[in-house]
């Protein structure tokens, strides 16, 4: 056990509000604010003059049960505290995750809100989270930072066309897109995102080939024996249809994802990057 009380990915003590508060406000925060990932994020927010009035967080995980989500919450809170120094209006941070326990929800709605009157932390149900999506109003979304520290491909396939983020803090998206198969009918939106990134040069042709996906409409040749004669027959694979995207390019503003920063947070910040989706005019 180290001086932060960590033995493995589980919290080493039966967590209570006081234990979580102590780690969040007096221990883990000191470690995170000295990290490269935190300083990289705030420097790029400042350098790029990024203005946002709310943060919507998804897929954080239970910070009462696991170390990584607690560190991810610490990072989120420190970004917000840094940002709150330059804002005068009310700032809303909403969080949803089906993994949240009643203890997580109580802590979000009560303990976090006691620390800064300008900041409103709130847990949202799935229905509330979806009801508050403003994807039809892209100008409203430009004022929201979406924080999804560990969204898998299926979650991004669902979320990107729904929320249409401009600012997205999550896993380095180009690495994730390399795992998307060009012919996957269940990943229609991400397939089109990958095609767009190929056109803009964000994913190279060599990377596509290494991923067994060369962005050509594929025709699979199979051999069948018919009437005791070997014939070649083309089995046509249905191509994924073209979908109009809401953005023209993706810029990655931070570079801390390129190296693995060692720390007590384990894999909490692996490949985390700040993205900007450049909208179509």
Can you give me a brief rundown of this structure?
InterPro entries: SRR1-like. With 281 residues, the protein is an alpha/beta fold. The protein has a single domain, classed as 3-Layer(aba) Sandwich (Rossmann fold), CATH 3.40.50.
What does this structure look like?
The chain has about 280 residues and is α/β, with parallel strands linked by helices. It has one domain: Rossmann fold, CATH 3.40.50. The protein is about 35% helix and about 20% strand. The protein has 10 helices and 9 strands. The chain has helices at about 15-35, 35-45, 65-85, 100-110, 125-130, 140, 155-165, 175, 190-200, 205-210, and strands at about 55-60, 90-95, 120-125, 145-150, 165-170, 220-225, 230-235, 245-250, 270-280. Strands 3-2-1-4-5-9-8 form a 7-stranded mixed sheet. It has a two-stranded antiparallel ribbon with strand order 6-7. The radius of gyration is 22 Å and the shape is globular. About 30% of the residues are buried. Pfam families: SRR1. This is SRR1-like domain-containing protein.
């Amino acid at each position: 056990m180290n001086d932060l009380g960590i033995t493995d990915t589980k919290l080493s003590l039966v967590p209570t509000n006081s234990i979580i508060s102590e780690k969040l406000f007096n221990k883990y925060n000191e470690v995170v604010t000295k990290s490269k990932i935190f300083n990289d994020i705030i420097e790029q927010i400042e350098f790029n003059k990024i203005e946002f009035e709310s943060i919507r967080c998804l897929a954080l995980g239970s910070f009462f049960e696991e170390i990584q989500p607690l560190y991810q919450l610490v990072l989120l809170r420190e970004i917000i505290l840094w940002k709150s120094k330059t804002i005068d209006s009310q700032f809303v941070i909403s969080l949803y995750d089906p993994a949240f326990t009643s203890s997580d929800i109580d802590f979000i709605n009560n303990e976090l809100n006691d620390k800064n009157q300008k900041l409103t932390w709130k847990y949202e149900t799935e229905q509330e989270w979806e009801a508050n999506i403003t994807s039809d109003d892209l100008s409203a979304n430009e004022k929201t930072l979406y924080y999804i520290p560990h969204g898998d491909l299926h979650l991004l396939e669902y979320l990107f066309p729904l929320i249409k983020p401009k600012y997205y803090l999550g896993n380095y998206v180009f690495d994730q897109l390399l795992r998307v198969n060009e012919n996957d009918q269940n990943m229609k939106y991400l397939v089109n995102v990958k095609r767009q990134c190929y056109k803009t040069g964000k994913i190279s042709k060599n990377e596509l080939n290494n991923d067994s996906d060369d962005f050509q409409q594929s025709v699979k040749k199979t051999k069948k024996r018919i009437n005791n004669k070997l014939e070649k027959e083309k089995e046509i694979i249905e191509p994924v249809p073209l979908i109009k995207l809401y953005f023209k390019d993706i810029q990655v503003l931070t570079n801390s994802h390129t190296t693995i920063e060692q720390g007590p947070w384990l894999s909490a910040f692996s490949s985390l990057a700040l993205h900007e989706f450049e909208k179509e005019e």
